[in-house]
Amino acid sequence: PSSIRLAVIPGDGIGVEVTAEALKVLQAALPQDVKVEGTEYDLGARRYHATGETLPDEVLDELKGYDAILLGAIGDPSVPSGVLERGLLLKLRFAFDHHVNLRPSKLFPGVQGPLRDTAPIDFVVVREGTEGPYTGNGGTIRQGTVHEVATEVSLNTAYGVERVVRDAFARAQARPRKKLTLVHKTNVLVFAGSLWSRVFTAVAAEFPEVSTDYLHVDAATIFLATQPERFDVIVTDNLFGDIITDLAAAVTGGIGLAASGNLDVTGTFPSMFEPVHGSAPDIAGQGKADPTAAVLSAALLLDHLGRTKASPALSEAARRIEAAVEADLAERAANATPRTTSEIGDALAAKAAVS
Amino acid sequence: PSSIRLAVIPGDGIGVEVTAEALKVLQAALPQDVKVEGTEYDLGARRYHATGETLPDEVLDELKGYDAILLGAIGDPSVPSGVLERGLLLKLRFAFDHHVNLRPSKLFPGVQGPLRDTAPIDFVVVREGTEGPYTGNGGTIRQGTVHEVATEVSLNTAYGVERVVRDAFARAQARPRKKLTLVHKTNVLVFAGSLWSRVFTAVAAEFPEVSTDYLHVDAATIFLATQPERFDVIVTDNLFGDIITDLAAAVTGGIGLAASGNLDVTGTFPSMFEPVHGSAPDIAGQGKADPTAAVLSAALLLDHLGRTKASPALSEAARRIEAAVEADLAERAANATPRTTSEIGDALAAKAAVS
Ligand SMILES: CC(C)[C@H](C(=O)O)[C@@H](O)C(=O)O
Ligand SMILES: CC(C)[C@H](C(=O)O)[C@@H](O)C(=O)O
Question: So where does NAD(+) get bound (chains A, B) (predicted)?
Answer without folding.
Answer: 278-290
